[in-house]
Q: What sequence folds into this?
């Protein structure tokens, strides 16, 4: 059936009103139309009777209505100007992948390791005659990318405004280690920290500001992340002002500007999510809770400057100038440089490359330079939303890197020092069921990292990345090989919440994971040997030996929320 336009509805209505005004007075009489006045024969009128004041008024109203309809029809047929910058959601739904590759969103963006920020507002162009042209397509808006690992699956923010798109995230989980550490301390992970307890891993409140091409993003972090993420950054130990405390409760904070060139150019400065490692910093966006080592051991944030260039709606090129490798400050005299290339030629394929170089990122070791390449592909190979098996996709990530100088070598043991490099991969396969209400992810990976420069230091006696510990050395040439596997089941009754259960098996070639005896001293020598007192990070405690195991099995149960 053809739908009537505004004019098709309003014009008959106006004519009806006119008919009512012109109808004889007997038609408006009470009851059955009878009139008490005596009837008289009406004389035949040769010329039209003059219009009454009421009739003239109705005709004027009709003319006004017809003009208004014409204006509405004209406006409706004009090319629509592009909308304001969207909320920070993963492009395609996503970012980020943003993160877009993982997925970032339309406005500022970057859900954690996401990489697909949309370009932001696109000005409507005009040709020489002054006629409006449609705006250029927004990057990565040509398809739905909510299926990507590292991309948020929310597709709308109902309380967003033209100026601000709020965002609230909550990650509450329960972890159970079958090693049963008596001090409840879990090590070797950047996502899981306590055994047999319910913990708030992350609570974030913030959002995206966007107006007149100016953009900014703020996301707070409270809970375990506010302690554990700064703990893995050694750069605050160089100099004063306690950078780890200054940034402790911030996961993202940056401002910038969107330029209406190409398909958009964004220039942002501040702290933003790293894209190395594919998985998002926020567990809600991911296919699994515990990422493999390739992602868990690589940066979760960068502090510096980025430029996002969108030559087409399918491609993003993003150079970085950053303080260093997941660092609030510089470790030595040279900052780091890098770039990302994200290409999505269609809605089922995404390829992402992250490159980092030239940073001197070993604390107190000037001249030791780091290089790293992180590359991923994601393919959606099944998409039948009406079937019980709704979708299926996989991700494959490979990392390679090394350090040279300062007593180590990239290319093997030599006079310059022992080989110090990083080699690893991870693979995950994701299935969605019952119109994406349920999810199942199977995957895992492995790494080889002689020198242990990217191995997460176990928190033995409160050890941090800056303090180190004599109980788990990170000297040049120290061997470390590890592998893992996981199975994750998700129940997603709403786009805003995920109930997750996961089993993780992790193993290493050296004792690394917390065992039954834990990693916290229970008896300590007394003063005056101050450096040996329990709780002094990096201290050797006489009579104490941490209980480390080569294998760890654990269960994670979590509730993940994003608005």
A:
């Amino acid at each position: 059936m053809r739908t009537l336009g505004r004019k098709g509805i309003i014009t008959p209505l106006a004519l009806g009103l006119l008919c009512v005004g012109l109808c004889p007075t007997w038609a408006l009489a009470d009851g059955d139309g009878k009139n008490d006045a005596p009837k008289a024969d009406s004389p035949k009128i040769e010329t039209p009777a003059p219009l009454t004041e009421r009739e003239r008024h109705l005709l004027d109203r009709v003319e006004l209505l017809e003009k208004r309809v014409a204006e509405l029809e004209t406006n409706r047929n004009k090319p629509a100007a592009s909308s304001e910058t969207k909320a920070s959601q993963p492009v395609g739904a996503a970012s980020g992948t943003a993160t877009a590759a993982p997925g970032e969103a339309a406005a500022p963006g970057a859900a954690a390791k996401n990489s697909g920020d949309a370009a932001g507002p696109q000005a409507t162009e005009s040709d020489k005659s002054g006629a409006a042209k449609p705006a250029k397509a927004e990057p990565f808006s040509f398809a739905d990318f909510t299926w990507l690992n590292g991309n948020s699956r929310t597709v709308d923010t109902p309380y967003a405004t033209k100026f601000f798109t709020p965002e609230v995230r909550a990650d509450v989980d329960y972890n159970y280690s079958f090693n049963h550490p008596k001090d409840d301390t879990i090590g070797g992970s950047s996502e899981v920290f306590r055994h047999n307890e319910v913990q708030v891993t992350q609570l974030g409140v913030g959002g995206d500001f966007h107006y007149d091409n100016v953009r900014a993003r703020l996301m707070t972090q409270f809970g375990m992340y506010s302690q554990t993420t700064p703990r893995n950054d050694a750069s605050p130990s160089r100099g004063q002002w306690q950078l780890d405390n200054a940034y402790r409760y911030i996961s993202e904070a940056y401002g910038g500007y969107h330029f209406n060139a190409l398909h958009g150019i964004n220039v942002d400065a501040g702290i933003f999510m790293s894209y190395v490692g594919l998985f998002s910093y926020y567990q809600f966006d991911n296919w699994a809770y515990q990422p493999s080592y390739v992602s868990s051991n690589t940066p979760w944030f960068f502090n510096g400057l980025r430029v996002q260039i969108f030559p087409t709606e399918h491609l993003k090129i993003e150079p970085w100038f950053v303080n260093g490798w997941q660092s609030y400050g510089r470790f030595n005299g040279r900052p780091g440089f890098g770039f990302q290339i994200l290409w999505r030629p269609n809605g089922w394929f995404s390829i992402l490359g992250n490159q980092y170089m030239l940073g001197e990122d070993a604390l107190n070791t000037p001249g030791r330079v780091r290089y790293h390449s992180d590359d991923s592909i994601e393919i959606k190979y099944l998409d039948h939303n009406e079937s019980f098996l709704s979708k299926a996709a996989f991700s494959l990530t490979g990392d390679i890197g090394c350090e040279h100088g300062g007593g180590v070598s990239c290319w093997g043991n030599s006079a310059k020092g022992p080989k110090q490099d990083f080699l690893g991969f991870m693979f995950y396969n994701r299935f969605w069921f019952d119109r994406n209400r349920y999810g199942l992810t199977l995957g895992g990976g492995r790494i080889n990292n002689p020198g242990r420069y990217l191995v997460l230091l176990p928190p033995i006696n409160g050890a941090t990345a800056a303090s180190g510990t004599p109980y788990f050395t990170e000297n040049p040439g120290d061997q470390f090989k590890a592998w893992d596997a996981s199975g994750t089941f998700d129940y997603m009754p709403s786009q805003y919440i995920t109930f997750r259960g996961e089993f993780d098996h992790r193993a290493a070639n050296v004792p690394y994971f917390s065992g039954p005896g834990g990693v916290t001293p229970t008896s300590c020598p007394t003063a005056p040997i101050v450096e040996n007192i329990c709780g002094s990070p990096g201290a050797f405690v006489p009579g104490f030996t941490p209980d480390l195991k080569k294998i760890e099995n654990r269960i994670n149960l979590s509730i993940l929320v994003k608005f």
The radius of gyration is 32 Å.
